[in-house]
């Protein structure tokens, strides 16, 4: 026997097929949207993290207040250097114990760590000039002032004393990656002074 499909039945089958295709498209679109939203969220968090790190590298810097050299009057040479530093405008908390310093002078380049951290034989230390919380290494207030102290010619790895007219550059690298460069020159004549501004 022959079975005849009426127009209504044919339209019903086409409608069901269209509905199945539509549902499949909605599911695919929902999955794609979920993937896009997750990816966008991940990229946003990564970009925020990168932006914060970049901001710290730019802003968490030190600012030099004054640099003073202690004079060995017997030899007319600088035997110690004290650099007074504070936070640069907009800087966050800076722990000098975690900083490294590159000393670039007449006798070569040295990399120094804080004397409370493990590292090279020649090290720097810090003393508080003005501090709000009693720490000798953490700058966390705009009024904080610390001396970064370098004692010269103390070990085989350290540089010798500085003579008249010699120039030194120090680069202070904080834990956030910010770098502060300070350049100073010993005066041409030290005379009989016990200390000079560099």
Automatic annotation (TrEMBL):
Transmembrane segments: 12-37
A cellular component term, taken from the record's GO annotations: archaeal-type flagellum
Cell location: Archaeal flagellum
Entry keywords, A to Z: Archaeal flagellum, Membrane, Transmembrane, Transmembrane helix
Native source organism of the sequence: Halobaculum marinum
Homology family: Belongs to the archaeal flagellin family.
Protein name: Flagellin
Function (record text): Flagellin is the subunit protein which polymerizes to form the filaments of archaeal flagella.
